[in-house]
Amino acid sequence: MKTALLIIDVQNEYFASAGGQFDQFNVDNIAKDIADYAKTAEQNGTLIIGVQHIMAKDYPLFAEGSIGAELHSSVAGILADKPVVQKVHADSFLNTNLVEILQENGIEQVDICGIMTQNCVTHTALSPFAKDYKIRVLSSLCTAPTELIHQIALGALSDRDWIEVV
Questions:
Q1: Which of 35, 53, 63, 149 could form a disulfide with 144 if both were Cys (CB 3.0 to 4.6 A apart)?
Q2: pTM of the full predicted structure?
Q3: 64: Cβ contacts below 8 Å, ≥ 6 apart
Q4: Distance CA 130, CA 123 (A)
Protein backbone atom coordinates (compact mmCIF):
# COMPACT_ATOMS: atom_id res chain seq x y z
CA MET A 1 0.00 0.00 0.00
CA LYS A 2 1.51 3.35 -1.05
CA THR A 3 1.85 5.51 2.03
CA ALA A 4 2.42 9.19 2.70
CA LEU A 5 3.63 10.63 6.00
CA LEU A 6 2.14 14.03 6.82
CA ILE A 7 4.35 16.06 9.15
CA ILE A 8 1.92 18.67 10.42
CA ASP A 9 3.00 22.08 11.72
CA VAL A 10 6.43 21.34 13.18
CA GLN A 11 7.11 25.07 13.20
CA ASN A 12 9.13 27.40 15.40
CA GLU A 13 5.99 28.89 16.97
CA TYR A 14 5.64 25.72 19.07
CA PHE A 15 9.21 25.77 20.42
CA ALA A 16 10.21 28.19 23.19
CA SER A 17 13.82 27.34 22.32
CA ALA A 18 13.22 28.75 18.81
CA GLY A 19 11.49 31.90 20.03
CA GLY A 20 8.00 30.45 19.70
CA GLN A 21 5.04 31.75 21.63
CA PHE A 22 3.06 28.52 22.05
CA ASP A 23 5.32 25.84 23.57
CA GLN A 24 3.97 22.27 23.56
CA PHE A 25 4.38 19.25 25.81
CA ASN A 26 7.67 17.37 25.24
CA VAL A 27 7.97 19.08 21.86
CA ASP A 28 11.75 18.84 21.44
CA ASN A 29 11.73 15.06 21.91
CA ILE A 30 8.67 14.61 19.70
CA ALA A 31 10.27 16.70 16.92
CA LYS A 32 13.45 14.60 17.07
CA ASP A 33 11.38 11.40 16.94
CA ILE A 34 9.39 12.72 13.96
CA ALA A 35 12.62 13.50 12.11
CA ASP A 36 14.07 10.07 12.84
CA TYR A 37 10.85 8.34 11.80
CA ALA A 38 10.61 10.37 8.58
CA LYS A 39 14.14 9.41 7.53
CA THR A 40 13.39 5.71 8.02
CA ALA A 41 9.96 5.96 6.38
CA GLU A 42 11.43 7.65 3.32
CA GLN A 43 14.04 4.89 2.98
CA ASN A 44 11.13 2.43 2.99
CA GLY A 45 9.39 4.23 0.11
CA THR A 46 7.00 6.46 2.04
CA LEU A 47 6.24 9.85 0.50
CA ILE A 48 7.06 12.58 3.04
CA ILE A 49 4.84 15.68 2.96
CA GLY A 50 5.22 18.71 5.16
CA VAL A 51 2.32 20.84 6.31
CA GLN A 52 2.89 24.44 7.36
CA HIS A 53 0.34 26.76 8.96
CA ILE A 54 0.71 30.29 7.58
CA MET A 55 -1.49 33.21 8.66
CA ALA A 56 -1.70 36.85 7.57
CA LYS A 57 1.32 39.05 8.32
CA ASP A 58 -0.51 40.86 11.14
CA TYR A 59 -1.70 37.65 12.88
CA PRO A 60 -0.15 37.05 16.34
CA LEU A 61 0.87 33.42 15.61
CA PHE A 62 2.27 31.82 12.43
CA ALA A 63 2.37 35.19 10.69
CA GLU A 64 3.55 35.02 7.10
CA GLY A 65 7.27 35.78 6.94
CA SER A 66 7.79 35.43 10.69
CA ILE A 67 10.33 33.21 12.42
CA GLY A 68 7.44 31.48 14.21
CA ALA A 69 5.92 30.38 10.91
CA GLU A 70 9.15 28.81 9.67
CA LEU A 71 9.59 25.05 9.75
CA HIS A 72 11.54 24.00 12.85
CA SER A 73 15.16 23.00 12.31
CA SER A 74 14.35 19.40 13.31
CA VAL A 75 12.37 18.88 10.09
CA ALA A 76 13.39 21.76 7.81
CA GLY A 77 16.24 19.80 6.20
CA ILE A 78 14.11 16.70 5.72
CA LEU A 79 11.35 18.73 4.07
CA ALA A 80 13.66 20.91 1.95
CA ASP A 81 13.08 18.86 -1.22
CA LYS A 82 9.62 17.51 -0.33
CA PRO A 83 6.16 18.86 -1.04
CA VAL A 84 5.09 21.30 1.67
CA VAL A 85 1.40 22.15 1.87
CA GLN A 86 0.61 25.59 3.26
CA LYS A 87 -2.69 25.95 5.07
CA VAL A 88 -4.72 28.53 6.98
CA HIS A 89 -7.18 26.07 8.58
CA ALA A 90 -6.70 23.26 11.07
CA ASP A 91 -7.68 20.73 8.36
CA SER A 92 -4.62 20.13 6.15
CA PHE A 93 -6.89 19.15 3.26
CA LEU A 94 -9.14 22.22 3.32
CA ASN A 95 -8.36 24.68 0.51
CA THR A 96 -4.90 23.16 -0.11
CA ASN A 97 -3.31 21.00 -2.80
CA LEU A 98 -2.90 17.99 -0.49
CA VAL A 99 -5.42 15.79 -2.33
CA GLU A 100 -3.67 16.51 -5.64
CA ILE A 101 -0.29 15.52 -4.19
CA LEU A 102 -1.73 12.28 -2.80
CA GLN A 103 -3.49 11.43 -6.07
CA GLU A 104 -0.43 12.23 -8.22
CA ASN A 105 1.59 9.78 -6.14
CA GLY A 106 -1.02 7.00 -5.96
CA ILE A 107 -1.23 7.22 -2.16
CA GLU A 108 -3.67 4.87 -0.41
CA GLN A 109 -2.64 5.33 3.24
CA VAL A 110 -1.88 8.57 5.07
CA ASP A 111 0.09 8.44 8.31
CA ILE A 112 -0.30 11.62 10.34
CA CYS A 113 2.07 13.09 12.90
CA GLY A 114 2.85 16.55 14.25
CA ILE A 115 1.57 19.38 16.38
CA MET A 116 -1.22 19.91 17.88
CA THR A 117 -2.99 16.59 18.43
CA GLN A 118 -6.28 18.18 19.50
CA ASN A 119 -6.38 20.66 16.63
CA CYS A 120 -4.58 20.23 13.31
CA VAL A 121 -3.84 16.50 13.67
CA THR A 122 -7.44 15.72 14.66
CA HIS A 123 -9.04 18.01 12.08
CA THR A 124 -6.90 16.52 9.31
CA ALA A 125 -7.72 12.95 10.33
CA LEU A 126 -11.44 13.78 10.51
CA SER A 127 -11.51 15.76 7.26
CA PRO A 128 -14.18 14.69 4.76
CA PHE A 129 -11.33 14.56 2.20
CA ALA A 130 -9.48 11.98 4.33
CA LYS A 131 -12.22 9.37 3.89
CA ASP A 132 -10.69 8.26 0.59
CA TYR A 133 -7.56 7.04 2.40
CA LYS A 134 -6.61 4.66 5.14
CA ILE A 135 -5.76 7.09 7.96
CA ARG A 136 -3.33 6.30 10.75
CA VAL A 137 -2.48 8.75 13.52
CA LEU A 138 0.99 8.03 14.90
CA SER A 139 0.25 8.84 18.52
CA SER A 140 3.83 8.82 19.79
CA LEU A 141 4.76 11.35 17.09
CA CYS A 142 2.18 13.97 18.05
CA THR A 143 1.95 16.48 20.86
CA ALA A 144 -0.36 19.11 22.33
CA PRO A 145 -0.12 21.88 24.92
CA THR A 146 -0.27 19.23 27.67
CA GLU A 147 -0.04 15.46 27.83
CA LEU A 148 -3.65 15.29 29.07
CA ILE A 149 -4.97 17.24 26.06
CA HIS A 150 -2.94 14.96 23.78
CA GLN A 151 -4.47 11.84 25.39
CA ILE A 152 -8.03 13.22 25.27
CA ALA A 153 -7.67 14.00 21.56
CA LEU A 154 -6.31 10.52 20.82
CA GLY A 155 -9.21 9.00 22.75
CA ALA A 156 -11.71 10.97 20.67
CA LEU A 157 -10.06 9.79 17.44
CA SER A 158 -10.02 6.15 18.52
CA ASP A 159 -13.84 6.15 18.48
CA ARG A 160 -13.80 6.51 14.67
CA ASP A 161 -13.77 3.19 12.84
CA TRP A 162 -11.99 4.63 9.76
CA ILE A 163 -9.07 6.06 11.76
CA GLU A 164 -6.39 3.88 13.28
CA VAL A 165 -4.54 5.37 16.25
CA VAL A 166 -1.19 3.60 16.57
A1: 149
A2: 0.97
A3: 54, 55, 56, 57
A4: 10
